[in-house]
Task: inverse folding
């Protein structure tokens, strides 16, 4: 049976069940009736993977060996993210959609079958854990050849509402500690499906970068009484060198110490902890700046730029007063035909070296004629 719920901005979410028991969620603006049935043969779900601690850096590593055989760059006529047709049954049973979210069929993390707890860190003697969490796929449009920048403002608004809805719902799971929606675009950074889509990873632990950001924010708050990210944004506004777009609710800038040839941070002028805290005004003003940023990025060299666009937000249960929501877009493209490879210093040592100043890339982005 379909289950529908009304969300913000006249958007409706309808839940359906796929043949193997996974949930698919349709996000619509026209109150479409979602009655299509998944007629594919039932396939066995992969078991939960392992969670191992790397004691040298005290970081968790998820082992998901079943992902080795997942689908890789299929042709358009076999794309599993397009709507279902007479000739092809896909992950989306309906013949059309606006935005959909469904549970990944090859997840790196999956819900535990019983009560779950993160193993106690004990160096090289840390017990083996199970890779608890959730991995979801979010499709931006049924149009296979499109990109985020090609979406209409109204479609971006639906997409934002889907991100918000998933953040709210996943936050209710007792084993979830952090939620990270992101989009990978371009074979250069490892995309395996070329249909416009993203993913939502809900972790049962704090990812390393989140832990590092939280520690820095806590230290700054202890010494100054101020929120670190708010001070960073204030400096960007004061310097006025690296800002590339702004409206009444949002600002986009190249950070002072960017790590990639093109790196853009987009955040609200009224700070919030996560997507769920965005006001109606924030939500309505997001599409314009999001589309401007993506069009500027592709306009720098007049080519499709490979990028990772990831939402950074406060963890579910800690640091809610320390970390701020922001959207980070990074591209390894430094020139047409040239990439910045994360080689010895970056990959081995974690020490980034930039070949161009952030002020230079900010100027290039601002100069793009839209």
Result:
């Amino acid at each position: 049976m379909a289950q529908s719920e009304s969300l913000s901005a006249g958007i409706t979410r309808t839940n359906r069940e796929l043949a193997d028991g996974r949930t698919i969620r349709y996000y619509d603006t026209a109150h479409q009736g979602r009655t299509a049935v998944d007629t594919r043969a039932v396939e066995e779900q992969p078991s939960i993977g392992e969670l191992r601690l790397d004691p040298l850096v005290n970081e968790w590593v998820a082992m998901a060996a079943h992902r080795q055989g997942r689908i890789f760059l299929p042709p358009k006529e076999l794309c599993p993210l397009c709507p279902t047709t007479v000739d092809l049954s896909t992950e989306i049973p309906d013949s059309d959609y606006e935005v959909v979210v469904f549970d990944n069929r090859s997840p790196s993390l999956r819900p535990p079958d019983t009560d779950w707890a993160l193993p106690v860190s004990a160096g090289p003697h840390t017990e083996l854990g199970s890779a608890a969490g959730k991995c979801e796929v979010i499709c931006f449009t049924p149009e296979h050849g499109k990109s985020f920048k090609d979406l209409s403002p109204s479609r971006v608004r639906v997409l934002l509402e889907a991100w918000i809805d998933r953040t709210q719902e996943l936050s209710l799971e007792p084993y979830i500690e952090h939620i990270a929606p992101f989009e990978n675009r371009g074979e250069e950074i490892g995309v395996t499906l070329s249909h416009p889509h993203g993913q939502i990873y809900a972790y049962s632990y704090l990812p390393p970068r989140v832990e590092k950001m939280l520690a820095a924010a806590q230290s700054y708050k202890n010494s100054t009484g101020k929120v670190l990210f708010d001070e960073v944004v204030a400096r960007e506004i004061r310097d006025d060198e690296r800002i590339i777009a702004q409206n009444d609710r949002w600002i986009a800038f190249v950070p002072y110490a960017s790590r990639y040839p093109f790196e853009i941070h987009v955040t609200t002028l009224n700070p919030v902890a996560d997507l769920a805290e965005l006001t109606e005004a924030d939500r309505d003003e997001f599409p314009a700046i999001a589309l401007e940023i993506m069009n500027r990025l592709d306009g720098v060299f007049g080519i499709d730029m490979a990028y990772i666009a990831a939402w950074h937000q406060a963890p579910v249960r800690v640091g809610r007063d320390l970390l701020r929501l922001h959207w980070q877009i990074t591209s390894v493209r430094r020139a047409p035909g040239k990439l910045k490879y994360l080689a010895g210093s970056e990959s081995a040592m974690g020490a980034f070296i930039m070949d161009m100043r952030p002020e230079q890339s900010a100027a290039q982005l601002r100069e793009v004629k839209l």
The chain has a mean pLDDT of 95.
